[in-house]
Specification:
about 625 residues, mainly alpha, five-stranded mixed sheet, about 75% helix, transmembrane helix, Nucleotide_cyclase, diguanylate cyclase activity
Length: about 625
């Protein structure tokens, strides 16, 4: 009897000690995950003395810490062991959801996205059965990440915004940081860099507020990468250096590889290139190449190396690196599309510089065809519509929270809940009316400037507006100049448009503008950009079309408009004139010069009587 009591006393004392260790580990995890893992692993040989629930908690923490340190196979092993123990629990535990999420993240990081998706769904199902709002939001965030990684952007934007609404209701800063970070990554993937930057900055602030130093530094590196993707290379360099200064206690090889590679590429592409500096930073990045079971890492490293070598004009070495990357990709069941696209484009660029134009053309065509097929799968307009819808929901939710805070004052929470139920219909209707009022007022007072900034669209035609057109054109121009690639500008003007407006009215003129926009969009690839430049002038930028391909598009557009049955109350048909200009490094020092050349050709076409193309 005494022996039995002593055993129970010992186990009770150990249980208390485990609770203390968990508390210490969770504090250390915020800033120094390495020390947290060492602290946790120091009791691994005593697991048999812990209760079942404590052992499950141990593996939950261990899997999370291994993931933070990018030791994904060990993270997967710990999560799998924890889930095996969880099956012995008498009732569902939130640890099952946590372990499923950890297992999913490790599996995702090791390259199996579909299996990770199933793990996330399993965890979310448990979280929902327990009605744990925080874990539900985390599960939705995990699903959203998988969806944008597999280019299911419509699903991603739905579940990530649902997750954000729950996180805002819960008021958990760390969770808000995580979900805002995923939204930033989503919008980066669909090319909305300004929106991506907003979410990443919010994420960084949430993590700082919750003292999650490790996570904040990680997001800061994503902000630097967003600057890099937006071709703001000096800003990227500044923030990457800030990341290095703040990441003293971060021990994560993929993290530092990404930071130093980002620095190297920023020095490659900035206006005043410094390839030798870039090479030094890439040599520093090589120290952190850690495959650790990630099948994409060797390919990523080889392609990054090829970019650096290409810019150092070490073309033979660059090609060797590219061919090795291609060999590794051929062994993968599902190679990453972005890696494949980059590999083909690098081949085309190098063969062009080497004067092997036939090979360069073949690989350039292959890269364009591949990119077009992938972009067809992404309905960006549908994604934008969803984004606006969920932003409206966020505004509605924010208003309700403010209303509730004003009405609650110092009342007890239980009484407040009763009042909230009684006023549910009123709040719902007033929230909807207020939301509509806010949007209308914003439209009237601000002249739709905010909405245009979000959508980048011209109100009448649905094409990109002049601001967005010139911004994207500048990006394409810079790329063509750096990579010695093609860029064609078509400037289009409607013949006798003033007379059409005077004789038939502006309503008919507007319909003609909209129809020309529709006919033009049908001819273009997604990478091409078609925008309204002025009242009746349009510009098309064709970044990956040679002169012949661009001329074919111009001819088709002119003929489509000429043959279209306009059904106007006039015998005259609608026609257009087109000015055609191809980028020439010596002739066009900036985008303005290219546009002026196209405009000059347009005037020549007009002077020849219109309804023709000059270039």
């Amino acid at each position: 009897m005494l022996i039995s009591c002593d055993v129970r006393a010992f186990q009770s004392a150990l249980s208390l000690n485990f609770s203390l260790i968990v508390e210490q580990v969770e504090i250390l995890e915020k800033d120094t995950p390495v020390q947290a893992l060492e602290k946790l692993n120091s009791i691994e040989d005593q697991l048999s003395k812990l209760t079942l629930n404590e052992r499950v908690k141990f593996y939950t923490l261990q899997s999370s810490l291994y993931a933070n340190l990018a030791r994904f196979q060990l993270s997967l092993n710990a999560a799998t062991q924890g889930l095996k123990l969880s099956s012995e629990l008498s009732s569902p535990s939130i640890h099952i959801a946590e372990l499923s999420y950890s297992k999913g993240f490790a599996t995702e990081s090791l390259g199996n996205l579909e299996l990770a998706l199933q793990d996330y769904k399993n965890g979310l199902e448990v979280a929902r059965s327990l009605d744990d709002k925080k874990m539900i939001a985390e599960g939705l965030s995990n699903l959203g990440a998988i969806y944008y990684l597999t280019e299911r952007y419509d699903l991603s934007i739905v579940v990530l915004n649902d997750a954000l609404m729950i996180a805002n209701q819960v008021g958990d800063e760390e969770l808000q940081g995580s979900i805002n970070s995923e939204l930033g990554n989503l919008y980066s993937n669909i090319g909305q860099d300004d929106k991506s930057m907003q979410f990443l900055q919010r994420s960084y602030q949430h993590y700082k507020n919750s003292s999650r130093t490790f996570s904040a530094v990680w997001v800061l590196s994503n902000i630097a990468t967003a600057h890099y993707n937006n071709e703001e290379y000096d800003s990227a360099i500044r923030i990457y250096n800030k990341v290095i200064a703040e990441a003293d206690d971060v021990v994560n090889n993929p993290f530092f590889y990404g930071v130093y590679t980002g620095l190297a590429l920023s020095y490659i592409y900035k206006e005043e290139k410094e390839p030798e500096v870039a090479y030094r930073y890439f040599k520093m990045a090589e120290q952190y190449v850690d495959y650790n079971g990630n099948k994409d890492m060797p390919v990523t490293y080889l392609l990054d190396k090829a970019i650096i070598l290409k810019n150092l004009q070490r073309y033979d070495e660059a090609l060797e690196s590219i061919f090795e990357a291609g060999r590794l990709m051929s062994e993968q069941a599902q190679p990453k599309d972005s890696n494949y696209y980059l590999m083909v484009r690098l081949k085309a660029d190098i063969y062009y510089v080497l004067g092997q134009y036939e090979k360069a053309y073949r690989f350039k065509s292959e890269s364009v065809d591949h990119r077009v097929e992938k972009l067809k799968a992404a309905d960006i307009e549908a994604v934008e519509e969803l984004r606006l819808r969920y932003e409206s929901k966020q505004a509605d939710l924010h208003k309700k929270i403010l209303e509730q805070k004003r009405s609650l004052n110092n009342a007890e929470l239980a009484e407040a809940n009763k009042q909230a139920k009684a006023q549910q219909f009123y709040l719902m209707m007033s929230g909807v009316v207020a939301l509509i009022f806010v949007w209308l007022l914003s439209t009237l007072v601000r002249g739709q400037k905010k909405l245009r900034r979000v959508t980048h669209l011209d109100d009448l035609t649905g094409l990109v507006n002049r601001h967005r057109l010139l911004k994207q054109g500048q990006r394409y121009f810079s790329r063509a100049k750096q990579q010695h690639s093609s860029l064609v500008a078509l400037m289009i003007d409607i013949d006798n448009f003033k007379e059409i407006n005077d004789q038939l009215g502006h309503q008919i003129g507007d319909e003609i503008l909209k129809k020309i926009a529709m006919l033009g969009k049908r001819l273009l690839k997604r990478i091409d950009i078609f925008g309204r430049f002025s009242a009746e002038e349009f510009i098309i930028f064709l970044p990956e079309s040679d002169t012949k391909q661009a001329m074919d598009i111009a001819v088709q557009l002119k003929e489509k408009i000429e043959r279209y049955q306009w059904q106007l109350s006039s015998e005259d048909n609608v026609s257009i004139s087109i000015g055609f200009a191809s980028f020439d490094e010596k002739q066009h020092l900036d985008l303005e010069a290219l546009i002026k050349n196209a405009e000059k050709m347009l005037y020549r076409a007009k002077n020849q009587g219109g309804n023709c193309i000059c270039g």
